Every structure is written in C-alpha cells, then in structure tokens.
C-alpha cells in the first residue's frame, strides 16, 4: 500500500442545494447527494495520483439527517487506503443548521472505491509517491 497525501483542510466541493433537487418530501433527493459524493471522492482520488478512474463501489452510506433547499453543503473527502490500482475514499457531508447558530452537522457519509484505469478502461497501477 502506498503513502497517501495528508487530508485537505477544505472540502473537495461545496454545493448550494436547489429546489430542482428535491424529493416528494421537499428535502434533497438522496441520489443527488450520492452524485456529489462520487464527484468529491473522485477529486480526492485525482489529488492522490489517479488520472482516469471509474467508481467500483460505494458503500457504508448513511443518511444521518435530511438536507434542505438552500443548504450550503460541504463534501469533505479523505483517503482511507491506496491499493495497487484502487483507492478508497471516505466522504463526509456537512451542512449548517440555522437553529444551531449555523453550526455544521454531518448529514451523510459514505465510502467510495475508485479504480485507476487506462484508456482501454482496464485497471493500471496508481503511481507511487
Ligand atoms: C472497476 C473495473 C475496471 C474492475 O475490473 P476488475 O476486472 O474487477 O479488476 P481487478 O480484479 O484487476 O481489480 C482492480 C482493483 O479493483 C478492486 N476491486 C474490484 N472489485 C471490487 C469491489 N467489488 N470492491 C472493492 N474493490 C474492488 C480490486 O481489489 C483491485 O484493487 P487493487 O489493485 O488496489 O488491489 C470493472 O469492474 C469495471 O469497469 N466496472 C465498471 C465501472 C464503472 O463503469 N463505473 C461507473 C459506474 S456508473
């Protein structure tokens, strides 16, 4: 297992949630959150040396709290493991709560595995540091 760069001190992405992303309850659709988790994790995987990558699994997904329209949501990504061709990234999603003086709470978290691939879309080693 190769060495990973230390965690970022800022989110991989921040997104302002819009009415178009709502479910039947008027809160943000879980699939929209998963899509941003995939993007945030991929940004982290690229930072760690992956060039072209595919998502192979997304697991340990927990929706702790609903996300509201207008929430400015932060997607924090941290590398858990770098294998030969795969990288595992944990993404923690945080949103501020106005009723808690804007304090951020964890609304969702997940673990995503990406595989570094060549132009033929077959696995290739992640460059070692
Ligand atoms: C990802 C993919 C290239 C892997 O192909 P494969 O033939 O299983 O490749 P390998 O067996 O050589 O495994 C490659 C790496 O993936 C890891 N891997 C494969 N399947 C896995 C799984 N289900 N969970 C976790 N890791 C997995 C292996 O452990 C290996 O990691 P390592 O090199 O760090 O040890 C292939 O399954 C694929 O193309 N899947 C579709 C990906 C895609 O389209 N994603 C977008 C979804 S919308």
Task: Summarize the helices and strands and which ones pair or pack.
Blueprint: E1 13-16, H1 30-47, E2 52-63, E3 72-82, E4 86-97, E5 103-117
Antiparallel strand pairs: 1-3, 2-5, 3-4, 4-5
Bound molecules: coenzyme A (COA).
Task: Describe, in plain words, how this protein is organized in 3D.
The chain has 129 residues and is mainly β. It has one domain: Hotdog Thioesterase (Thiol Ester Dehydrase, Chain A), CATH 3.10.129. Helices cover 14% and strands 42% of the residues. Strands 1-3-4-5-2 form a 5-stranded antiparallel beta sheet, covered by helices on one side. 30% of the residues are buried. The mean pLDDT is 95. Bound molecules: coenzyme A. Coenzyme A binds next to β2 and β5.
Largest sheet descriptor: 5 strands, antiparallel
Q: Numbering strands along the chain, what is their spatial order in the largest sheet?
A: 1-3-4-5-2
CATH-defined fold name:
Thiol Ester Dehydrase, Chain A
CATH superfamily assignment? Answer: Hotdog Thioesterase
Strand portion, in percent?
Answer: 35-45%
CATH architecture field = Roll
What descriptive keywords fit this protein?
elongated, Thiol Ester Dehydrase, Chain A, binds coenzyme A, mainly beta
Could you write a compact summary of the structure shown?
This protein has 129 residues and is mainly beta. The chain contains one helix and five strands; from the N terminus they run βαββββ. The chain has a five-stranded antiparallel β-sheet, covered by helices on one side.
């Amino acid at each position: 297992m190769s060495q990973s760069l230390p965690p970022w001190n800022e989110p991989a992405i921040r997104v302002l949630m819009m009415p178009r992303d709502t479910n039947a309850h008027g809160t943000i659709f879980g699939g929209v959150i998963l899509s941003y988790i995939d993007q945030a994790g991929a940004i982290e995987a690229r930072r760690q040396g992956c060039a072209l990558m595919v998502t192979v699994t997304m697991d340990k997904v927990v929706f702790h709290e609903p996300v509201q329209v207008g929430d400015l949501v932060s997607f924090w990504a941290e590398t858990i493991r770098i294998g030969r061709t795969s990288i595992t990234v944990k993404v923690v999603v945080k949103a501020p709560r106005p009723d808690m003086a804007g304090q951020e709470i964890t609304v969702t978290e997940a673990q995503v595995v990406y595989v570094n691939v060549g132009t033929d879309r077959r696995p290739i080693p992640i460059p070692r540091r």
